[in-house]
Amino acid sequence: MPDRKRKWKIIRLHIILLPTLLFAFYFFSLAPKPWTGVDEAVVEKIAKEHGREAKRPVIDPGEGDLLLFLFLVAGAVGGFLGGYYWRDLFDKKK
Amino acid sequence: MGRTLFFVILCLLTATPAFAMHISEGILPFSWALFWYLAALPFVALGVQRLNALAREDLSLKPLVGLMSAVVFIISCMPIPVPTAGTCSHPCGTGVAAILVGPLVSVVIAAVALLIQALFLAHGGLSTLGANTFAMGVVGSLGGWLAFRCLRGMGGGLALSGFVAGVVADWGTYATTSLILSSGIRGDAPFLPLFAKVVLAFIPTQLPLGILEGVITAGMVTLLYKRRPDLLVRMKVISEREMQNHA
Questions:
Q1: A78 and chain B in contact, CB less than 8 A
Q2: Topology of domain B24-242, per CATH?
Q3: Which of A83, A87, B37, B238 lies at a 20 to 30 A Cα distance from B188?
């Protein structure tokens, strides 16, 4: 590829890439969002407007990080098993 | 291969309880909750019947169904931040389950995943289990499966058909959730404006997430086609001739 053509290609790539990265940076850092789930942001909010509120679950996992820890452990075990049996699961049959 | 494995492990490790499409405990009045239980029940019963029939033909399908249940459980728990909306939501996973194990068995899978989530993760609720099963299990599975079959029938490739199936399953689920919610909570208010309001509130999050679910579904089906086409033949997703062509 001639040098001039290559240079223009790089410039064009930068014209697209830099504003995209800048936009992504501003989006995530300067305008932080609540990141709530849509059940809270949509379902429960609209239901509350119409007089229906969510009740506490039958088995209440409560607050705190215990549930997160249990998920982490389950995820680690699941990930290990998935990795250990990866070839059995996905390798081509001989 | 290493990178894919790393990604899967990362997904599993970062899975935390999410709160999204599921209608929470107590949101629906008793009469509507009962109605959706009754609407979902025949599909679950047919799914159990179909699962038993499949297991009679080939017992080794049961572990595959178990694996798909785990996939649906994790996918429908996995919170994904959507920058365009500033909220989190999750894919459903019923599209890929319906493609691989059939729509009726996928309804059973969704019901089991939703039951465990309602019982132990405060995700959804026992009173709204019927409604959530109908949205994610029945509509998600049947919609995704029909889209996949139609496109395959028209000569569509596996990746394209899988993509559309994932999108239809996701958007169909959330459209049904909007319908269930707006009909259940409206009281004396007119139905259509409330339905439109719920749909519009879901759009910023679910529009991109549905596309992501399409990509995930297409990726999973294509991966299986590359690595284990025999599984796809067994599940009647592709024909033996296609597998021979692939080999």
A1: yes
A2: Arp2/3 complex 21 kDa subunit ARPC3 (1.10.1760)
A3: B37
Residue B247 · residue B232 · CB < 8 Å: no
User: A30 — contact with chain B (CB < 8 Å)?
Assistant: no
| Closest-CA distance of chain A to residue B245, Å | 15
Q: Per-residue pLDDT tens for A38-94?
A: 877 888 888 888 888 888 777 776 665 667 677 777 878 888 888 888 788 776 655
Please tell me whether the overall predicted TM-score, pTM, comes out greater than 0.90 for this model: no
What B91-94 contacts at long range (C-beta under 8 Å, 24+ apart), as own/partner pairs, is B91/B166, B91/B170, B91/B209, B91/B212, B91/B213, B91/B216, B92/B21, B92/B136, B92/B140, B92/B169, B92/B170, B92/B173, B92/B213, B93/B213, B94/B136, B94/B137, B94/B140, B94/B141, B94/B144, B94/B169, B94/B173
Q: Indicate yes or no: CB of B83 within 8 angstroms of CB of A33.
A: yes
Q: How many angstroms away from the CA of A9 is the closest CA of chain B?
A: 29
Each residue's pLDDT tens digit, B39-64: 999 999 999 999 999 888 888 788 88
Kindly indicate whether the ipTM for this predicted assembly is greater than 0.85, answering yes or no.
Answer: no
Q: What residues in chain B have per-residue pLDDT under 50?
A: 1, 4-19
Say what the pLDDT of residue B199 is: 92
Of A50, A60, A86, the CB nearest to B5: A86
Domain range list for chain B: 24-242
